[in-house]
User: Fold this.
Amino acid sequence: MAGLGKNYKAGEVIFRQGDTGNCMFVIQDGEVEAIAESDGREFRLRTMGRNDFFGEMALFEEETRTATIRTTKPTRILSIDKKNFLGGIYEDPSLAFRLVQTMSHRIRDLTERLARYEQQK
Amino acid sequence: MTLGDGARIAVIGAGPAGSMFSYFFLSMAETIGLDVAIDIFEPRRFCHRGPAGCNHCGGIVSESLVQRLATEGIRLPDCVVQRGIESYTLHMDVGDVEIATPLMEKRIAAIYRGIGPRSSEPLETHSFDGYLLDLATQKGARVIPRLVTGLRREEDSMRVQCADQFTDSYELAVVATGVNSRLTEMLERESGEFARPDRTKTFICEFHLGRKVIRETFGPSMHVFLLDIPRLEFAALIPKGDYVTLCLLGDDIDEALIDKFFSAREVRERFPDGVIPGHVCHCYPRINIRSASPVCGDRLVFIGDSGTTRLFKDGIGAAYRTSKAAAKTAIFHGVSAEDFGNHYAPLCRRINNDNRVGKLVFRFATLVQKARFARRGILAMTAHEQRQTDSPRRMSGVLWDLFSGSASYTDVFLRTLHPAYLGALLWNLVAANLPGSPSGNGRAEKGGHGHVRH
Ligand SMILES: Cc1cc2nc3c(=O)[nH]c(=O)nc-3n(C[C@H](O)[C@H](O)[C@H](O)COP(=O)(O)OP(=O)(O)OC[C@H]3O[C@@H](n4cnc5c(N)ncnc54)[C@H](O)[C@@H]3O)c2cc1C
Assistant:
């Protein structure tokens, strides 16, 4: 009974690439993988564990999810409402600091991968 | 008046406000490369069972605070969360209704401020306050296990004095002693300029029922009572592990009021066989009902309950907001009365203004407590909404935010002025009170989410 969030079994999809959404998620326990789907094939972008968040783009843009998120083991996930998050940032912009830090790491990671891909081409 | 490398800060009290101030202050200092030190004065040991290790509260960490802490990277571990709450059950003389989160997700944490009631078994539990204090010490704060008995202004520092003659001076003193402390009383008496918060007496007790009984009778739901008992503003039973916490808030809660509450049928029915067991631990802590004034001075700031908090709701959330705002001001602006006045006091004013609206909302709730036809209408509207999955849940949302403290009172109040809300309420008031209607002439009972049954 203890523990916050919602429980998912291994292999469950939290959301699919192309879905629309208006919240982000923080992993309380367990692990998920982010998967890009293209031409019916799946590419694993990264795995994420305890305290990592995903789905944050939906908080800032009215767009669709850019990747599919699937659990790799039993996982507990807490959702963060857009309204609560943006209300928090309005009062205290530093609330977005960790989010910006993580997004910056992800851009760095993707840039490095792109550079490696360009070299291999 | 700014803090430079080598500055030393005294934080008096390690409740949520003191520990969160220390955590955020040291995190921000680290980010900008400022070398500062924090001493936290706290005589209480959060590893003790019963009142000695406990800061006496209902122990609900609101939905909005859970989400904000998660965004900050602060995850409440399972050993701290005694139970994840996923619904509220409202009990009235006209019936009960369960209000669930739309996602059926546990978004509210029931915690212990210490590690459980007096005489509770040693379990794998961890105190919420102890956990926050650990976060602060991991960032480098030092804990001084002493009671502060004096705080004096010196030329360019604040001098802290303790009961055992220990004394030291600091560039900034942060008062986070809550409202159950003598220190603010002493500061009021000696300074002549500071008025400590107004307070009123509340009641908390713990019942030992065991996990199985709690699962079967309470579930992952917080049980809130709307009863016609004068001076009672809020009453809730909160399930946690092997125990259930009762929390009564209102105007100077006393034994007569408590007896009246226990003799209410709606309350007795919550317990197995309708018998209220003896409680294993109880206290009459005070609660802040009006902010201190002023909340800051040169090199001095009052945070959490000893400064400003939300009326009857989400006190821990207010401690988070005020502690972080004070930490940001001290790091990025300075520690003069003017700095705190410009960058910290506006938040306190916002909370105070919202509390004024909150008083209005509670006055309205008192009217509802007195009017049976209004209770019937509210019950019918909520139950109907809970049965629908795709229509707007206006009454459920208002009640949810009111019970959980997840939204401001102003936000809740404005939503009750929405024409669609008023229209639906009016319709339900009429429909639920017509002779022969399901709840029009008796007591309806809940059977699952919003299914009102006779
Ligand atoms: C009956 C009741 C139920 C409540 N329920 C809830 C709830 O469910 N959810 C919620 O969010 N809020 C609740 N609250 C409000 C909540 O308890 C407070 O808002 C919150 O504890 C404030 O935190 P704080 O750190 O400011 O003060 P406190 O939690 O009171 O902590 C103050 C600390 O300072 C220490 N201290 C005091 N004097 C000195 C001194 N002279 N020297 C050194 N240390 C000192 C104390 O030992 C203590 O550890 C409730 C309050 C009451 C009374």
Notes: Chain B has 14 helices and 23 strands. Residues 447-454 of chain B have pLDDT under 50 and may be disordered. Residues 203-284 of chain B form one domain. The longest strand of chain B covers residues 232-240.
